[in-house]
Amino acid sequence: MKLVKTAVATALMFSAAVSAMDSRYQDRTGNLVADVPQNEAEWVNPSTLIFAYTPVEDPAVYADVWSEFLEHLEKETGKNIRFFPVQSNAAQIEAMRSGRLHIAGFNTGSTPLAVNCAGFAPFTMMAAEDGSFGYEMEIITHPESGIEKVEDLKGKNLAFTAQTSNSGFKAPSAILDAEYGMKPDVDFKPAFSGAHDNSILGVAHKDYDAAAVANSVLNRMLSRDVVNDQQVKSIYKSQTFPTTAYGTAHNLDPELQGKIQQAFFSFDWQGTKLQEEFERNGEAQFVPITYQEHWEVVRTIDTANQVSYTCS
Fold first, then answer.
1. Same domain for 48 and 120?
2. Is 99 helix (H, G, I), strand (E, B) or coil?
3. Are 209 and 146 contained in the same domain?
4. Are 276 and 286 in a shared domain?
5. How many domains does the chain contain in total?
6. Would you say 212 and 139 are in contact if contact means Cβ atoms under 8 Å apart?
7. Are 254 and 296 members of one domain?
8. Which of 41, 65, 133, 173 is the most exposed place for a label (fewest CB within 10 A)?
């Protein structure tokens, strides 16, 4: 699926952020992702593999959603699999960096940090049956806010999720600056909710005047009647971005990495909880991706925001 360019994409058509990979990793192939260590003694092949899904919503809900897939993963790898309910993007990155997390889905915005600071090696994302994929960032408000267009955000509070989030912070920050000349603490008051569902509920309950969110999360919450379309309305919709990237720690035994990849691509979605949850976004399969190609637009936005991939 080609990414649809908007005015911000045109405004940001300069070199994307170059790799700033931590010195503990090596990118010998030049694909911007850490390679398997050359020394086989550094390969990891644990009896129990830890899986974590990006912390965009209630982890307890997603432990159940992923349960059937993790059973399939156990059969394909011959390993015990445990679901790790991470509470923040930073905690998820640190878990992989420290060797406590082996397989993960990192959200769009935190994927570059995970790649460069934690040795994350992404290989797949969810897509529709026709192979199309992606989501958009939307700026939403509630009907009584008095906000009808982006310019009306002036003087209002705008909720972001976290600074590592693409749709929850980095993309809207670049768009508001490039397209509208609007800056935080000058034209609007920023707030941070911690998660997309928090931002959406905050707007629906009128705690925030507006919020920048991933419409994939919004659509799932609308379909589950967590909020309804009388409580929120959209005033901006962005270009399409890649969705959550799934992959492994770079230092897993290559044979094990192959089995994990095969598990993703051989999983039968039909009738599963994974299908029930993600078909709300039209997603029906896992498709191959490369970080170098599919995350180029995200690295460009990071460059616009002067984001550093330096690891602390």
1. yes
2. coil
3. yes
4. yes
5. 2
6. yes
7. yes
8. 41
Quick one: which of 1, 5, 9 has its CA closest to 283? Answer: 1
- Tell me, yes or no, whether 152 and 126 share the same domain: no
| Residue 185 one-letter amino acid | D
For position 184, which CATH number holds?
Answer: 3.40.190.10
Q: Using CA atoms in the order 83, 298, 283, 1, what is the torsion angle rounded to 10 degrees?
A: -150
- Beta strands across the sheet bearing 157-160: 189-192, 157-160, 210-214, 135-141, 233-241
Residue 1 domain flag:
no
User: 117: burial class by Cβ within 10 Å (0-12, 13-18, 19+)?
Assistant: buried
Question: Domain range for residue 299?
Answer: 7-132+242-304
Distances (CA, A) of 237 to 8, 135, 149, 250, 253: 12, 10, 11, 35, 42
Verify that 91 and 164 share a domain, yes or no.
no
Does residue 131 contact residue 278 with C-beta atoms inside 8 Å?
Answer: no
The strand ranges marked E within 142-260 are 157-160, 189-192, 210-214, 233-241, 245-249
Residues 84 and 27 in one domain: yes
Per-residue pLDDT of the chain (312 residues; tens, 9 = 90+): 333 333 333 333 333 344 489 999 999 999 999 999 999 999 999 999 999 998 866 777 889 999 999 999 999 999 999 999 988 889 999 999 999 999 999 999 999 999 999 999 999 999 999 999 999 999 999 999 999 999 999 999 999 999 889 999 999 999 999 899 999 999 999 999 999 999 999 999 999 999 999 999 999 999 989 999 999 999 999 989 999 999 999 999 999 999 999 999 999 999 999 999 999 889 999 999 999 999 998 998 888 888 888 886
